[in-house]
């Protein structure tokens, strides 16, 4: 648990350092591109913008840390039912597993792989489960 707390502290420090770095780049860019002083934001506006940016980063860190503690299935998943999903490398391995999972979720699949026999096998597996898929042979032209 202590290691996780240190990880969160390190993430916040890293994010704030990145914010300061990119904000300084922004200010340098304003001077570099020759904006006049009336076009540049005032010092008060710059401080307010920086504080709002830091607040947004801190809120984001807290929200993502809370999400990390939640078990799978608590947060809603994106619905892919009816969406067209292109899967490259669907002839075997991870591509085949992704094709099967997206098929179970109701997506319309476009299968693409240089291994045509494996791609056809994946399509047969999907047809056995009643999933609509389009087989696209990938050309091996160099």
Automatic annotation (TrEMBL):
<feature type="transmembrane region" description="Helical">
    <location>
        <begin position="6"/>
        <end position="26"/>
    </location>
</feature>
<keyword id="KW-1133">Transmembrane helix</keyword>
<dbReference type="GO" id="GO:0005811">
    <property type="term" value="C:lipid droplet"/>
</dbReference>
<protein>
    <submittedName>
        <fullName>Epidermal retinol dehydrogenase 2</fullName>
    </submittedName>
</protein>
<dbReference type="InterPro" id="IPR036291">
    <property type="entry name" value="NAD(P)-bd_dom_sf"/>
</dbReference>
<dbReference type="GO" id="GO:0016616">
    <property type="term" value="F:oxidoreductase activity, acting on the CH-OH group of donors, NAD or NADP as acceptor"/>
</dbReference>
<keyword id="KW-0812">Transmembrane</keyword>
<keyword id="KW-0472">Membrane</keyword>
